[in-house]
Task: inverse folding
């Protein structure tokens, strides 16, 4: 590295690098605050208006119009500040912005990498599921089914009993079981509905609990 020169004393070096104060060039790089001591700020100020007298900012309140600053330390923040109302414009698409260990992905990146037609509902239609009618007899498990469509599917189901009592439905997906429907009515027939999403490749089956169902209808979006 070239020797440090005093502030305001630029020098062209024999290898065609430039050294002046805390700034020097080396090949294709511009080094700022290289000779500073310890963790410290390093920044570049941009001056683009003529309010300050040449060589002085005293009494004018004029500091800078824009600043690119790297805060101290290994993990210091890099900040770009633009005074006034002018926007900060980048003439290329920014894919991702990382902040506080979290990534903010731009709309352009999402549009380019997640084209329309891949989410649930795209290119899928509602139809009667093979699981329909599986669990009319309590408390037996219905048949085991597999979502082999290569995409998540949605199931919408309705359980009905034509007289008063309690009904309920469990679902088991890849061996994990939970309660997806419970209903009761003491004054007549009882009905309940619910929906569930089945991951691609998953196996599933239903089970009724409570009183025997009159009907169990399952519609499938696949």
Result:
């Amino acid at each position: 590295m070239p020797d440090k020169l005093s502030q305001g004393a630029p020098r062209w070096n024999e290898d065609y690098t430039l050294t002046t104060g805390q700034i020097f060039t080396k090949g294709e790089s511009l080094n700022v605050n290289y000779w500073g001591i310890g963790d410290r700020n390093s920044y570049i100020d941009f001056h683009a208006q003529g309010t300050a007298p040449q060589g002085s900012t005293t009494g004018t309140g004029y500091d800078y119009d824009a600043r690119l600053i790297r805060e101290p330390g290994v993990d210091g923040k890099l900040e770009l500040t633009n005074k006034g109302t002018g926007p900060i414009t980048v003439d290329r698409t920014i894919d991702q912005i990382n902040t506080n260990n979290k990534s903010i992905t731009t709309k352009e990146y999402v549009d380019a990498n997640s084209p329309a037609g891949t989410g649930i509902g795209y290119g899928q239609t509602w139809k009667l599921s093979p699981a329909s009618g599986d669990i009319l007899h309590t408390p037996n498990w219905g048949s085991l089914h597999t979502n082999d469509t290569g995409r998540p599917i949605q199931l919408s189901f309705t359980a009905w009993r034509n007289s008063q009592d309690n009904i309920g439905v469990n679902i088991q997906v890849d061996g994990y079981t939970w309660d997806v429907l419970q209903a009761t009515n003491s004054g007549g027939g009882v009905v309940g509905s619910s929906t569930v999403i089945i991951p691609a490749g998953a196996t599933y089956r239903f089970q009724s609990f409570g009183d025997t169902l009159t009907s169990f209808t399952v519609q499938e979006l696949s």
Q: What stands out?
A: DSSP finds one helix and 17 strands in the chain. The radius of gyration is 34 Å. The longest strand covers residues 176-185. The first helix runs from residue 107 to 113.
